[in-house]
Amino acid sequence: MEKIEREYLLGRCKCCLDDTDLQSMWEEHFINGEPEVYGELAIQCFGLNWHLANDEDVICNACIGRLRDAVNFKNEIIASEQLLLEGLSDNIVNNDIEVKVECIDDSETEYLEINTNENKASYKQYTRLQLRDALKAISDKKMSRSEAAKAYNIPLRTLCTKINTNAIIGRYYCVYCSTDGRVFHKGSHLRSHTATKHYRERITQVEHFMKPYWFNEVLKLDIHDLTCKICKTKLPEWNDMFQHFADMHNIGYDEAYTRVIPYRITKKLECALCRSEFSAYHVLDSHMNAHYNNYICHQCGETFLAGSRLDKHVQVHSRGQFPCEVCGKVFTVEKYRMKHYNYTHKKKKVFKCLYCVEEFELVNQRQEHIIEKHKDVANLYTCQHCDLAQECEEWIDPFDESEESDPTPDRPKKLYRKDGTAMYKQYTRLELKKALQAVADKLDEEDNKSKTIKFIKEIRKILKNTNATPFKHKAGKYYCAYCSTQGPAFHTGDHLRTHTLTKHSNERIRQVEIFMRPYYYNEILKMDIFDLTCTKCYTKLPEWNDMFQHFADAHDIGFDDAYTKIIPYRITNKLECALCRGEFSAYHVLDSHMNAHYSNYICHQCGETFLTASRLDKHIQSHSRGKFPCEVCGKIFALENYRSKHYYYTHNKRLVYKCLYCTEVFQLATQRQDHMIEKHKEFIKKYVCEFCDKLYYNRQNFRRHMKRKHIRDKKYKCTECNKGFILKYELNSHMIKHNQVKKFFCNMCNEGFTRKVTLRTHLEKVHKMDVKNNETATT
Prior knowledge:
- This protein is an alpha+beta fold.
- It has 27 helices and 39 strands.
- The strands form 17 sheets. Strands 25-24-23-26-27 form a 5-stranded mixed sheet.
- A hairpin with a 6-residue loop joins strand 19 and strand 20.
- Helix 3 (about 60-90) packs parallel to helix 13 (about 335-345).
């Protein structure tokens, strides 16, 4: 077994065990005229014990790029350390103080020894391992700061300083106020400020804060608790927003996909796209380059958000000799020389006080100035363990996890100010109830999301192992599931299947999650299973349920949600149910029939079953019968949706039927159909009768013509004259001739008629009345 594993690992990258794009680790490679040996770079950077060079050692191109970045990062740390030491030596040149840092044995014990002419001070000794364990114990809430200081022999102030240094996440500024305005340390404070102070200029000032355009190439957006303002829908993911606006509100985007960068400003710094966690904001900000390929470095292949980031990165590849103009010190990168000059010789003051006009070279100098000069104005927080004053609350207690949530009643959160007084958050029972409900909703949302992920995996199984075609249907036309209803419409299943096979073969599996969004709206998926075949063994599957049995027996593949959430159809010229083979005249009749095969939702009043919750909600309206009068004319209806239809079609005259080929909108579906026949005749499918060559643009009218004129199956017979009819209502209309019952009377001359249409003709011709504007005349 060991021999097999050893042979399997031979010829793979020594760093990541990949087997693609490999190069030798110990041969010389020339990059920009300079030789590189990748094995020596790894030993130099990480101190690895690779003393025996093996000619068979290889490394992949991806690891080469990461290795170069690590070496450059190490060189940058060394250069920065040199600059700091130079600045330190300038500050203490006039003092008789010797600072000595030593490392003893293998335990890496660090201690600070200060010798002066007058006295000697000794400090506690501790190892790096002890410091790491102490910080971990505090972060895990196992020890308090004072307990950790005593247990690990570390000074309390040193421990607090280390915690405060690790706690600094970053400072955020309002985009409307820019960096000259107020600084925020929490996302909740930033969001509250923007919502209250800039709600009026939220839209109108966009052009202003994006100036200059060459500098503001991208825009950063905080998407914490992202919600659609149109329909109040929660959008848990950034890409959900684009899909939601396209599907629900017909709003499209172009530049926003690559130039608006999403962030979630919370206590836990994580990427808004891949959910990876980071220790500091600048690390997260650099990570976002990996998700966007707006700019690409042609030397190493790295991607970047903005041109300025690429320009800064290119300097890493342009190594040379850059001497300082003042002291002559030589640097390998130009930016290192600039940093040395600014911090050593120029002494430029770049950190401005937030409360006065003073400027400082270092941020800690500004912090000391604020604590000393502006303690009455600044919102300072005092550590309850060591009386350390800080401007930001997170620097006092960085391990407090309750960043956004309200405290529980028995343990309210304390805020300590300079004078030592404690403040408690105030909240009402209603606020507590809302918070608990929000937590419950979030748990439900996570549960629904896990179920959706499981359903998507099963869809991928079916699409991977069969030739089934997912589709959508709207207004009597079929649409590709990948293009959605914004794409081309198809009238036949052959055209739909050909389009899906040729245009979306690459994204057939990986785009499932996209066309299933939003999840609450796409509760089921419709699939065309015409000529269904298993692509693993090329077995024909004549029935839908045969597929599940075949995969279980032959390939050991199981399903769960697919039984009830994937609905099979056969899109052919003959509309029939894929489960019971029943035939139907129109697609919407077949679609309604599919409810009978699935019991996902059940009406408790009549026992009918339905595919989705939306269909059940629509059905329940039929049970809520009553008296619903029209607000305008007073006409009474038994159902609320009938009253609404009457109002919109009679009084409101709302244009709800949009042309499928242009921007025209109509009040009635028949008006839209007439318009399309007149203006877009070349796009509409034509139905020609093979017996009499009569032309139809509507399939229903064509089928009616075929039944009436060319199909002799007239099963409804008149008992009086033995005349046959195709439809029952035609027989009922004919029987009026034999019965001669006059139900309709003229209000002017009291003459009776057997049909209402005859009464209307009488009123128009004899009494010259406008029947359309005088409905009471025919009642």
